[in-house]
Predict the structure.
Amino acid sequence: MAKTKFRDEENDGDDGGDLPGQPEYSAAKATAGLEDKEFSKGVKNKLQGAADRGGKRDDEEHLEGDWQTFDDVRWSLNHAKLIYMISKYAVTAQSVDDEESWIRNVPLLVMVYEGIVAGVLDFDYAPQSTLISQDGMSKRTFMNVTQEGKSAVDDLREQKLLNGLKLSSEDFQPITAYQTSVRGLEFVQQIPIRLKKDVDGFIYAPKPFQDKLLLVQLRREFDEEEEKEAQHFYLIADGGFEKMSTVTEIEDVSYVASPYLPLHVRRSEKPMTSNAHRAGEAASGESNIKDDLSEAIHLAHVNLLVGEWIAFGSNQIVALNERLGAMDRCQGGLFTSKIDSDPTATQFKVPTGLTQVGILDYDLINCINFEAEINYPEAEGIVQVENFGMHLNVDGTIMYGMKIEAIMERKADDISLDMLSRLLVDVQKDSSQIINDLLSAYQRSLLEMIFNGDEMNRCKYNMVIAEAIDPKLNGEEYMDRGDNENELKQVIGDIQSAHNIGADDVLILGRDGMLFAGPNSRRHEPLLLFYLSLLVRDMFIRVFFCPHLCARRPAQDHPSADHGARERPQQHLQGAHDAQQRVARHHSPAGDSVIPGRVARRHGGARAARGRGGGDAVQGAQHGQHATRRGGARQRPQEACLGGAARAAEPQQHDRRYQHQAAGGCLQER
């Protein structure tokens, strides 16, 4: 966030109406019950930074005055500009004959960003994964969101200058809309004409459409460079004017990172690659950050763990170990998800940018750990030494680990949260591409179904582990609804709680991640990993839940179809079973038929004779005789979640090496 250091001097003026040091409203003040004009000197100093960065340029100093005080609260220039902008789009009805008008949250964020780029609003922004709903379908995109601007909107709402409206989209996504209240309109009348003209400069179209208000429109277009659908926001006005906003153009930073995985998930003591000697390369690189950054919080010796959940099982782990060559003399190599449709041809061409994989250790049926080096092309001047440590577990938990050696000129002992937020966007995007190259076609089809074709933009959980944080405060002091909280939101989302862990460590939990900072942070890694595995399941289930609500809507919209199902339940149930078999057979990774649970019990004996008794590939040879008891009833949780009663058939034969290891029981989970 664009922040200014607290001033050492104090403002002892009696009437602070025209003085820049006058403390202004903040939500922290309201929370503490400080609603009178006589603030303590300590509160004045705490609010000094907000007053200094209140959207004031050198030519705006003379605009400050008594007009900023409304209902015993002194508002900053940023607050005044923001409420005036909202009043041009959404106001409350003045009479029974008027209509209410509202501005939705996402278009508001786009317009606030345009104000920042135009130099009118003095907020900072950082990239954030945002879920956007259009035409009954929600898709994620990274857009530049200002946490300071969102906090200012909340300030105005708390004082009843803005009204908020909660509603939901066609696909059941929550949406918030805002409008200027009657009290807010009274405050707008006090705002000087000069400030209003500054705001008009970016909310109205240029000549010859200068009297037309700009509106925000989302378009989903095919990006020829990326070869996929992309979401772009356009600013349009009556008369034919339109231009594309840069709100979805994410800024890059140069950085150097080494692979990292907690010792708790390792199966050996093989050392991981260190790029610490290359930290100086980040300082020689460039960034395309347009905003001037001044940080409030710094971290030292940061380890990142980005987690997600994808349906896995023993069969998939065995197949992945085979594909990565975990048991070969030359392990790993370069990988791509492209299918070889002509294996006998002499040449094979793939796009630039492959993933280099180096095996660390593995358990044949439980997990695999490896390093992944990213070789994707970057913009000119951007230097990114990007190495991941990756852990894939049989229960579906996937972790991408990274140790930050340097970001731009900042070394490992001085990491800025502003720059870290931009690095995390790279981690989120590149990790999706890496795992896409390693998943089977069946797993990719499941992700495509769950995320409605938007699987490459899926959200992941960010766990930040640091050895030190500056400033070191009590946990609750980071939730100040001001500088500290706004900066933390850029990395871990909306703050839910903050806790002191002993005398030296602090734990901050957010909606999209968590921060654990302190000298003892590494001692708690086993517990943190367990918490991460639960959170990624929760994120997946939330995504899985929404499509099923949407799938139920057509039946609810057509009562006659639902009545037919009640009249002929057996026929509809049998039809559902047949359809399920057809879909599962079509998506089976082995190409074999898929047997529903009750049918599996009838066919258990035949499957056991083939050594495939409904169990895992390696365990089938040893436990095939139990197929009639197991059938399809004892499914793995992720398979029950994704496939109901259907289950993929196992390969008929396996390498003798696998059968010997399974029979000998030499591979046991740690």
Summary: The two ends are 44 Å apart (CA to CA). Confidence is low (pLDDT under 50) at residues 1-55, 555-566, 586-670. The longest strand covers residues 298-309. Residues 525-557 form the longest helix (33 residues).
